[in-house]
Write a structure and sequence with these properties.
- It is built from 17 helices and 15 strands.
- The chain has 468 residues and is of the alpha/beta class.
- Strand 3 (112-116), helix 6 and strand 4 form a beta-alpha-beta unit.
- The protein binds pyridoxal-5'-phosphate.
- Pyridoxal-5'-phosphate binds at residues 30, 91-93, 120, 122-123, 175, 179, 213, 215-216, 236, 247.
Length: 468
């Protein structure tokens, strides 16, 4: 494991606009910055811009081909068996909502959903709403159960998770990587726990379905949805260098073939097969693609993945960007392996440096163990918001707040429910990390230098926070 060589890293950084403006971007767990070549691609596409599946012009046909090929690129990126398993959405949040609406009608009175206290609100609030607000209107009571995590190590409490799963658990869902604690739950064991529930699914199988919120996992490791054996996997491309606006839901083909879509309307119907008394639907994957999709966003997102292989891949003589050639799995492995090693090594450097600051407490996974490439912390006597503003004044872009991991902040009794977070990706350098550490140290040592911040002070540890 290690950072990219400095020459390679300089070449990568030169391909991003932020590098020209000397920004130290460490809010990558929220969104990453797209490479300049992707903006150029979008500008070029504007010359052949047209709708897909809705025209006979060369422009429409070319755009349709590029759009459809994007499904293949993303499918091979996550080792999905085919494009038929994918639907495109605006974000991970919308992808999880799509799964929720598709599954909702199948929940029976007395069923339950099991999730965890470390979820992003995107993978808690939809299930909360379904169980507490929507299904009760149809007279169905479905319970939402929450598995605990260890407050010191951030580990998911698998024994507790297993104790919550029973013969009425239709769905188990958890994150592949926490955006606050850094935890990467062992998904093979979560799969085994879901399987051990004896729920009778409509297709005759037994056990709970498994949905993985892979928003953070996708950004920092190679996703292999078949190896994960998850029923649903949701993630967002804007967390891996693509522009905003594209989230993906993978669902096993058997589910795609039987579940109702989340949205109904144009393009998801079979051409001309709409009658006053019945509607016939389109083939997969377009059955799950109602209305005009985010065409340019999807094409740009898929091409960003190809560009990433070119930037960090092992073969300098092979260019994938601006082609639709079938991606080589070994090239994807190599690229994401390099991204993962680089980000992990920067994260370790950050933890080592931050840990030396008096009163600073890093949440979740202990130093030296595998985690998502982010560090969330508080410093005794300092508001995380004041720290983030002080970092900004020194050119370091971080994030303070609960990062939508509100349940975990509450469970740790952090009051107010907030921490400061820095997170890393392929374009960050060891120098960025050192500047983060120096900026935090200065914010602590010389708080008067930075704009005053009125937010309440947060204790450094869960225990002192609850006392304070
Ligand atoms: C674990 C996790 N799930 C879901 C989301 C939501 O992603 P999006 O904003 O693309 O909906 C995030 C974003 O930070 C996340 O970290």
């Amino acid at each position: 494991m290690g950072t990219l060589a400095s020459r390679e890293l300089e070449l990568i950084r030169s391909q991003f606009a932020f590098g020209l403006r000397e920004r130290i971007v460490t809010n990558n767990a929220a969104s990453t910055q797209p490479p300049l070549a992707v903006w150029e691609l979008l500008r070029d596409l504007s010359e052949t811009y047209e709708n897909v599946h809705r025209g006979q012009s060369d422009a429409s046909i070319r755009t349709t081909e590029a759009f459809e090929a994007s499904f293949d690129t993303i499918a091979s990126w996550i080792n999905a068996p085919s494009r038929d398993t994918l639907s495109m959405h605006r974000s991970t949040t919308e992808a999880i909502n799509a799964a929720m609406y598709s599954l909702m009608a199948d929940f029976r009175d007395g069923d339950n959903v099991v999730t965890t206290l470390m979820e992003h609100n995107s993978n808690y609030v939809p299930w909360h709403a379904m169980c507490r607000e929507i299904l009760p209107r149809f007279g169905r009571r479905v319970e939402l159960r929450l598995a605990r995590f260890d407050h010191d190590s951030g580990e998911l409490d698998l024994a507790h998770l297993a104790s919550l799963v029973d013969a009425r658990t239709k769905l188990v869902t958890c994150c592949g990587g926490s955006n606050f604690l850094g935890t990467k739950p062992p998904l093979d064991r979560v799969r085994a726990i879901a399987d051990a529930g004896a729920y009778a699914q409509p297709d005759g199988s037994t056990g709970a379905l498994l949905l993985i919120d892979a928003a953070q996992l996708f950004a920092s490791s190679r996703l292999d949805v078949q190896a994960m054996d998850a029923d649903f996997v949701a993630f967002s491309l804007h967390k891996l260098l693509a522009p905003f606006g594209v989230g993906v839901l993978y669902a096993k083909k058997s589910l795609r073939e039987t579940l109702p879509p989340f949205l109904y309307g144009g393009d998801m119907i079979a051409e001309g097969r709409v009658f006053p008394d019945r509607v016939e639907y389109n083939d997969l994957p377009w059955r799950f693609s109602a209305g005009t999709p985010n065409i340019l966003g999807v094409i740009a997102s898929a091409q960003t993945l190809r560009l990433l292989v070119d930037m960090v891949g092992a073969d300098p003589d092979r260019a994938w960007f601006r082609t639709d050639d079938p991606l080589d799995p070994a090239a994807v492995d190599a690229a994401m392996g390099a991204v993962a090693d680089h980000a992990a090594s920067l994260t370790q450097r950050a933890i080592d440096g931050l840990a030396a600051i008096d009163g600073l407490h890093v949440y979740g996974v202990p130093a030296g163990r595998e985690r998502t490439p982010l560090v969330a912390f508080n410093i005794a006597g300092h508001s995380p918001f004041a720290i983030a503003r002080a970092l900004n004044a020194q050119g370091v872009e971080s994030r303070a707040g609960c990062h939508c991991a509100t349940l975990a902040h509450r469970d740790l009794e952090i009051d107010p429910a907030a921490s400061c977070r820095v997170s890393f990706t392929v374009y960050n350098s060891p120098d960025d990390v050192d500047r983060v550490i120096a900026a935090v140290r200065r914010a602590v040592d010389e708080p008067g230098l930075f704009a005053s911040e009125t937010a309440p002070v947060v204790g450094a540890t869960p225990a002192s926070a609850s006392r304070g």
